[in-house]
Amino acid sequence: MAYMFQYDSIHGKFHSTVKAEKGKLVSNDGKAITFQDQDLHIKCGDGGAKYFVDFTGVFNTTEKAVAHLKGRDQRVSLSASSAKVPMFVMGVKHLKCDNSLQTISKVSPASSNHLGKVIQDNFPLSLLPSPPPATPTGPAKAVDKVILELNRKITVDLTCSLEKAAKYNCIKKLVKQASEGPVKSILGYTED
Predict the structure, then answer these.
(1) Which of 42, 57, 117, 162 is most buried (most C-beta within 10 Å)?
(2) CA angle, 70 as apex, 67 and 75 as ends, to 5°?
(3) Distance CA 157, CA 168 (A)
(4) pLDDT in tens for each of the 192 residues of the chain?
C-alpha cells in the first residue's frame, strides 16, 4: 500500500517518502491509519479521523460508506464511480462539492473528464469516447455524470466528434492553454 500511495498517480511520484509502520502509512506530513477489511464491521470511525477514503469499490453507496462512521461530522470519499453518490473531479466539477455531503465519489482522472471539459467548453461535443478502464471501477462510465452535457455520448477511445466544424490547430491551442492555466497540475499537453 505504501508503494502504491507513493507511485500510483497521474500526478507523478508523491513528494515525500511513504512507509508502512504498525498499521499506518507514515510520511513526512504525518500518519494515516489504514484498514484492509471489506467487512462492514471496520471501525474506521474509532481512529478519531474526520475524513476517510475508500479504495475497495465495495462501499459504493452512501449507506454502505457511512456504516463505518461514528459521527455526522465525518466524511467519506470513494475512489470508485457510483451511480448513487455525487461525483466530483478536480479541475472539472470540484467547486460544486460542498460540506453538506457526507459521501462523495472522487472520479478517476483516467475518464477523460479534463480533456472533454476543455473541448466541450469551446466546441460542443457530439461524441467523446473514453479509454477502456484499467480498473474495475469503470472510470469511463463517470464522464457523463460529471459533465452532464456529455450524457450518453461516451464510447471507448480518445477520439471526439464535434457538433460544429473546428480547425485542428485551434483545438490544439485551447488544450495547450488549458494545460498551462486552469488545469495545469491535472492536464498535460504534448505534440509527441
Answers:
(1) 117
(2) 75
(3) 18
(4) 777 777 766 566 777 788 888 777 888 777 777 766 655 566 666 667 777 787 777 777 888 877 777 766 788 888 777 777 888 777 777 777 787 887 888 765 555 567 777 888 888 877 655 554 444 445 555 665 666 666 655 443 456 788 889 998 998 899 899 889 877 777 777 787
Residue 122 CA from chain centroid, whole number: 23
Grid cell, residue 50, equals 474526520
Query: Which amino acid, one-letter code, is at 60?
Result: N
